[in-house]
Amino acid sequence: MSTEELYNEPHLILLVSQGNREAFTQLYSRHLDAVTQYIRLFTNSEDEADEVIQDVFVRIWEQRDKLSTVTAFKSYVAKAARNRLLDHLRHLAVRKAAIIDLQTTATAETPEDVWHYRYIYEKVQQQITALPAQCQHVFRLSVEKGMSLDEIAAELRISKSGVKNQLYKAQKLVRQCFEETDNHLFLVLLLTIPFF
Questions:
Q1: Packing angle between helix 9-17 and helix 21-40, nearest 10 degrees?
Q2: pTM to 2 decimal places
Q3: Tens digit of pLDDT for each residue in 162-195?
Q4: Do the Cβ atoms of 166 and 134 come closer than 8 Å?
């Protein structure tokens, strides 16, 4: 008996719709290469492609109850891959536009912008000074010296997760002093300083 005869796709689809993981593994193995080739045509890195591919199959598994009406898995997985890829590319485009917008805002040089930037900077400095000593030290090493999490952990002889916790706490405390109207400029300020 050939492998093709053993591979009964309609039956596997039905089993997957009922939550059978082994059947899903068979469908996954059969269609992974085609999905991978398709996704990699449109992505810039293997990591990015792998993330999209994983999302495609995770979503199919999570929505397996919809498979009961599917007759051809190849068409179904192709449509799922295309939709997930479009979502991913839209997300990248929105992110790129947001970064450009923030960079444009950060480099604006009207007197009002310069004044507002200085105001925000002074406010941030006041908040940093009010932080607990260890928290302040970690924050300054990250923001002012541009040190990585690993470098800070090595210098202070604390764990990387301890550094992350201190930075999170510092960001949260510093951000609390800003009203909604200043929040955008505060984010621009943080993005213009080397952070992680």
A1: 110
A2: 0.49
A3: 888 887 787 777 766 655 445 545 544 444 433 3
A4: yes
